[in-house]
Amino acid sequence: MAKWSLRGSLRSLFTGARPIDDESWESLEDSLILGDFGADAAESIVTNVREATARLAIADERELRNVLRDELAERLAGNDPTLRLTRSPDPETGRLLPAVVLLVGVNGVGKTTTIGKLARFITRAGKRVVVGAADTFRAAAVEQVATWAQRAGADIVRPQQQGQDPASVAYQSVQHAIATDADVVIIDTAGRLQTKAGLMDELTKIRRVVEKLAPINEVLLVLDATTGQNGLSQAQAFVDHAGVTGIVLSKLDGSAKGGFVVGVQQTTGIPVKLIGFGEGIDDVAAFNANTFAAELVG
Questions:
Q1: How far apart (Å, rounded) are the C-alpha atoms in residues 219 and 231?
Q2: How much is the pTM?
Q3: Is 157 helix (H, G, I), strand (E, B) or coil?
Q4: What gap in Å lies between CA 140 and CA 149, rounded to an integer?
Q5: What is the pLDDT of residues 17-42, one digit of tens each?
Q6: Structural Rg of the chain based on CA atoms
Q7: Considering only CA atoms, which of 145, 82, 152 is closest in space to residue 111?
């Protein structure tokens, strides 16, 4: 499995024992903004770090690195990153229902590969997974998600006919998961964003038909980590209206600026739950605030 890394880290910011002065704070704020933290988050972080260094009587930049790492870790740990995949009992029969996960996101963010990686992440834990190919508007999308599902060792439910209603595919996927006593069903959704109204109507319909069979545990929004703040603005319709419960960051490789993670959590209040990196099916990890802050700061 590849090791993920961040080009936009702050590792080179504090390299010596130079005394802290006004230039230090300016350099820190500039680096945070360039690292895609966003202006508001950068200003708030600098304010908190300045207060902490004064309280702890820290005088040189080497020690400042530790204060910054702790500040970022605390911010990132403010939201629970736990994936909620616990099966719930059917109120009528008592039979355990599968946990249901919807994957949403605009086209091009790596949603299909994320589905495969998530399915693999869950099957590695010994759970049975069903993937529903409910992005029926592109035939290629169905074939791509089927390939990734099969590589992950998951069952795949395809549309029974071209252009089938996405909600009916989602319904059939949950039906199949119940019939085969699967632990988790992951449902792909269309990534187009022509109009917020059309997109949300479709997602609302999917949710409505799925919830006739089982509750929805997670709605995971896939964001491309390399697009930074632009990616967040593109996905704002999902954040505002789709009932998103967690974020999956894809393409978190050497070209990504890690400050985006802090900015997106502060802007949306939604936790990052998984990070995807590399091209292999195992290149995914649960999000950990301390690990991420250490990677950012060094």
A1: 18
A2: 0.90
A3: strand
A4: 14
A5: 778 888 889 989 998 888 888 888 89
A6: 21
A7: 145
